[in-house]
Design a protein that fits this description.
CATH architecture of the largest domain: Beta Barrel
CATH topology of the largest domain: OB fold (Dihydrolipoamide Acetyltransferase, E2P)
Number of helices: 7
Distance between the termini: 43 Å
Largest sheet: 7 strands, mixed
């Protein structure tokens, strides 16, 4: 038994090392914490950014598409520059984990400091001080009210709402209520349907697929719209085989 455990441990170490290393290139930015460099899909370790379909409230209590804005802010910051990314392993969705720099600046730190992502304390405390700075200056998401990305993905009536105290309580309740509303495409032709109810992996359906029209997008947190297949895959989904 001990021999088997030792062999298994060595295997896991070797697999982990196989996905470690460095990649360089101009990224394809899927959302504010997931990018592609070439064929390598990279999920930033230690932070969590709003989902593409996520909405937030501004200081006046009005809704805005904060997930899309976070992505666009990162694209603007990147400006088609070459990134250098250090890979440290993979997650359960086989995405590479790591951090990236551009122009000598840590991309994850920039996102958190400017309020476009949160420190993912469940996995790392490296960016907690940066989050405190963003909160103090009410930068990005912190200028209004929002749901933490990890809660947004599993939201319900008891979901905790974060953000500026100036946002009225009624507006905070509206955010949670809106979170539970029927999912609608956030912008343009975001027509790919995601079904997150599978016990093993999210499955996405493209228009024309056998089950596309059958998949209801009625109110539930297990449904999500995607704007591209790359975005769906970055979220850990696989394409329906039919």
């Amino acid at each position: 038994m001990q021999r088997w455990l030792a062999v298994a441990a060595l295997f896991l170490i070797s697999v982990h090392a196989a996905f470690a290393g460095q990649v360089r290139g101009v990224p394809q930015i899927v959302d504010a914490d997931t990018v592609y460099i070439g064929l390598t899909k990279i999920r930033f370790n230690g932070i969590d950014a709003p989902e593409t379909d996520q909405i937030c409230l501004d200081a006046a209590g009005k809704t805005w598409t904060c997930g899309i804005e976070a992505r666009e802010q990162l694209r603007s910051f990147s400006k088609d520059r070459t990134w250098s990314c250090e890979l440290t392993g993979t997650d359960v969705y086989r995405r590479s984990l790591g951090f990236c720099t551009v122009g000598g600046e840590n991309v994850s730190r920039w996102l958190v400091q400017n309020g476009w992502a949160l420190a993912f304390r469940r996995y790392s405390t490296e960016y907690v001080a940066d989050e405190d700075t963003a909160r103090e200056h009410q930068s990005g998401l912190w200028g209004g009210t929002f749901v933490a990305p990890w809660d947004w993905r599993h939201r319900n009536n008891s979901t905790v709402v974060l953000g500026a105290l100036a946002v009225p309580t009624t507006a905070q309740r509206a955010l949670v209520s809106n979170s539970l509303a029927a999912p609608t495409p956030p912008v343009g032709n975001c027509l790919i349907k995601g079904n997150l109810s599978s016990a093993t992996q999210c499955i996405y359906h493209v228009p024309g697929g056998r089950f596309y029209d059958r998949l209801s997008m009625q109110p539930r947190s297990s449904r999500r719209w995607f704007c591209s297949e790359a975005e769906a895959q970055a979220a850990g989904c696989r394409k329906s085989k039919l």
